[in-house]
Structures are given as C-alpha cells and as structure tokens.
Inverse folding.
C-alpha cells in the first residue's frame, strides 16, 4: 500500500511543479522539471524491495530502452502540434509511442544497449523538434485545471503500474518510460497556450532527460554490486546535479516572450 501511495503522490506533484515552473520561467523550463524521475524512481525501488536488486537492474535497463517510446511521442506530437489540434496530436503521439514501445519491449536489451537506445533516441527527437527561438510562456492555470492534470496523471500511473506487475521486469520498465506526464502536460499546454508552447515544453522535457537517464543508468549499474541504499542515493545525487545544470541553462536571463493564445 505504501508503494502505491508513493507512486500516486509523486507523479501528480511533479505535474504540478512542471506546470508552475512553466508559468514562471517558460514552457521549456517546465518541460525540464517534468523530466525528473519521480515515477520511475518509485517503480525501481518497488522492484528492488519486492523482487530483489537483480530485478531492479532489469527494470532500469528496460526503462532506458523504453525511452525510445517517449522520444517517438515527443517528436510526433511536437511536429503535429504546429498543424493539428491537441486530440489529433495526442492520438498520433500515442500511436508512435505504442509502436516503438512494443518494439523496445521485445528487444531484451541489457543496460549498455538500453543506454545507447535512450541517448540516441532522445538526441534524434530533440533535433527533430521545431525550435521556438524565444521563451514561450504558458497561460495562467486555475486551481481546477491543476487538479484535473494531477488527477489524470494519477489515473494513468495506476493503470500502467497494474499492467507492469503482470508483464515482468523488462516490459515493466518499458511501461515506466511511456509518456504519461508528457501526454498530460503537452495536451493541456497545447489547449491553453498553443502548439508552439507544447512543442517547446517537449523540447525542454527531452533536454531534462539527462537526469532521468543518469538515474536509471546508475541504479542499473550499481544496485547489485553496491546495494539498494547506496545505488539509489548515488542515483538521486547524479540526477539532481544533471537536472540543476539543465534547468539553469533553460532559464535565459532576458528573452522576448510569445504571449499565449487559445487553441
């Protein structure tokens, strides 16, 4: 029960933090904040506690490979958002993620190959997304809007977590990397602030994935030889360092802003 509570609390809180950061510093910075491993972290810890360190290492490797699905979603949604409404962009984004995720779940990758897939797919998606060239600010978010985002995130986490328990460590890791937060934040940003803001959010998310990748790689490499406590402590430290540098670089001192428009 405690494991479930952790997962259902951290994910929605991350959505809230990303939303507030987007309104304060621009949607790109909000995307960076959303890339924190607040969902996969508890997933890996639960796997380590319930199934042992070796299972956690397998989940970490599967999650890295599964980032190809997130990359596919970000690239497809970001490019579609410039021409289509959010429902159409969301549909093609999830179709791409599902297809790539299915392929990733069948690879049976180890940690090294998973890391290569993660870094390569994230880099390709980032290069393929259109750049706004300016800071895109998000429109104001009401308390009801924020609560809806958090509630939908919790529901998706619950559904994916239940599925992951029945699929085993490798496919479960792929599910942990599916674009839960990305789809919620992109759709709401698209609706409130337009397609350019959604694309910039996804670019920021891809930039912030350096910390996510570091977390999974450190856990995957160290959880067996160093133990659960040491591996997770080092993973958190590495993630915070990488995220701090990325977030700082994503907050320009002065830049022209695009005023949000309705969609």
């Amino acid at each position: 029960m405690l494991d479930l509570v952790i997962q259902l609390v951290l994910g929605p809180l991350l959505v809230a933090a990303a939303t507030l950061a987007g309104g304060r510093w621009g949607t790109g910075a909000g995307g960076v904040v959303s890339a924190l491993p607040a969902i996969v972290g508890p997933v890996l810890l639960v796997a380590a506690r319930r199934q042992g360190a070796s299972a956690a290492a397998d989940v970490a490797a599967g999650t890295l490979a599964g980032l190809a699905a997130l990359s596919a979603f970000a690239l497809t949604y970001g490019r579609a958002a410039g021409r289509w409404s959010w429902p159409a962009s969301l549909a093609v984004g999830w179709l791409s993620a599902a297809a790539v995720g299915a392929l990733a779940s069948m690879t049976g990758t180890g940690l090294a190959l998973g890391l290569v897939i993660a870094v390569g797919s994230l880099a390709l998606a980032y290069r393929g997304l259109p750049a706004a060239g300016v800071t895109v600010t998000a429109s104001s978010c009401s308390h009801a809007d924020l609560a809806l985002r958090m509630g939908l995130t919790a529901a998706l986490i619950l559904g994916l977590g239940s599925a992951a328990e029945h699929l085993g460590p490798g496919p479960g890791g792929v599910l942990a990397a599916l674009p839960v937060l990305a789809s919620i934040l992109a759709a709401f940003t698209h609706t409130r602030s337009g397609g350019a803001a959604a694309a910039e959010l996804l670019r920021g998310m891809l930039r912030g994935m350096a910390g996510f990748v570091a977390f999974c790689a450190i856990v995957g490499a160290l959880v067996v030889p160093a133990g659960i406590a040491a591996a997770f402590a080092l993973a958190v430290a590495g993630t915070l360092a990488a995220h701090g540098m990325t977030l700082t670089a994503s907050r320009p001192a002065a830049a022209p802003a695009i005023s949000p428009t309705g969609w």
Observations:
- The longest strand covers residues 135-136.
- DSSP finds eleven helices and two strands in the chain.
- The beta strands are 135-136, 257-258.
- Confidence is low (pLDDT under 50) at residues 253-263.
